[in-house]
Design goal:
It is a single chain. The chain is of the alpha+beta class. The chain has helices at residues 27-34, 51-67, 114-130, 144-152; strands at 12-13, 17-20, 71-77, 85-93, 98-105, 134-139, 156-167, 170-180. The chain has an 8-stranded mixed β-sheet with strand order 1-2-3-4-5-6-8-7, with helices on both faces.
Length: 184
């Protein structure tokens, strides 16, 4: 069975980004992201209404981290403290060596390759450090940008579930993408 240990928190770095622990000081930036209808359009979670909602989400991320059931990084530009987005491997299923990837990014920073840059680093960490066998992504079929990003990174669409998810009074469809560990 997979064993996870995220202490000390593994800060990651790319050419342009620092992937770091999300802290209470990020609550205002996180609130702006999680209260933005455009950012949250394909994330079936309630919009944040107050900064306290952002703080509660940080607690969930911390609890998941401490339990070893997932890890979420804050995305910042190198040398700048502002939180521009998040990316994580959450819902780690230890007995199956599998996790789900999720991400979001401030609209002002989209279409610059930043999520791609972060994803490459996080996937490498997931496969080489956590020792995952596979990573999945659950995507709203209307989220074409996310589908392209996943396919660019080698994910394969394995399923199309019709009306398998109920959110805000509506049944929604899901694509399930999967990526197996690269051969080493």
């Amino acid at each position: 069975m997979l064993r996870t240990n995220f202490h000390p928190f593994p800060e990651l770095s790319t050419e342009r980004l620092t992937l770091r622990r999300i802290v209470d000081a990020d609550k205002d930036d996180l609130f702006l992201l999680r209260s933005d209808r455009g950012v949250m359009a394909y994330i079936d979670r309630p919009l944040a209404v107050t900064t306290e909602d952002a703080v509660k989400w940080i607690r969930v991320v911390d609890d998941t981290l401490l339990a070893g059931d997932g890890i979420t990084w804050g995305i910042s530009l190198k040398g700048q403290p502002a939180l521009l987005g998040t990316i994580g491997l959450w819902r780690i299923v230890k007995e199956h060596y599998r996790a789900e990837i999720g991400y979001l990014l401030h609209p002002g920073y989209q279409r610059r390759g930043l999520t791609q840059e972060a994803m490459v680093k996080v996937l490498d960490y997931g496969f080489s450090v956590i020792n995952l066998h596979s990573v999945e992504a659950n995507v709203n079929p209307e989220n074409e940008a996310s589908c392209r990003l996943l396919e660019k990174n080698g994910f394969v669409r394995e399923a199309y579930f019709k009306e398998n998810h109920f959110f805000n009074g509506v049944f929604k469809d899901s694509f399930i993408y999967s990526l197996l560990t690269p051969l080493r």
